[in-house]
Amino acid sequence: MKVFIYPTNSLILSDLVERFGHEPLALMQEIGKKVRAQGLDSPPLNITPEDPKIGLKYAAVEVPSGVRGRMSLFGPLIQSAEAAIIIRDPVIPFGCMGCARTNELVNFLIRAKKIPLLELDYPSTEDEAKEFVYKISEFLKSLTEKKNEQH
InterPro entries in the record, alphabetically (predicted)? Predict the structure, then answer.
């Protein structure tokens, strides 16, 4: 299954999702496509004329351009998601997204999609961290079971 992870730049979440046989929908993949695309001369200013239009699909023109820019990347990932994992209040090294308005919009869109969703608080102790990984693994296993039932 395609699993949207948030924060979408979390290497830890991306790795866990892959280890359980699912496809992580992550920001790094989308940025990688843009950086490697032919015809873009100057990363990080590597946007195409279509990118702002994509962002407008998710956020009105009155919304700050940074939100629209982020949504031009996140929006298509959310659309293709079959499940999602959201971590609340992560520390910066885990994958902080840094934009409160985008965070609110992404969380709203994920919940509105009505797909299997796991929401967890970022752990602050070793025991919480063990429970955190356990809950993620159980969620991902349940997705595998659902996937197998559909086939």
Answer: Methan_mark_5
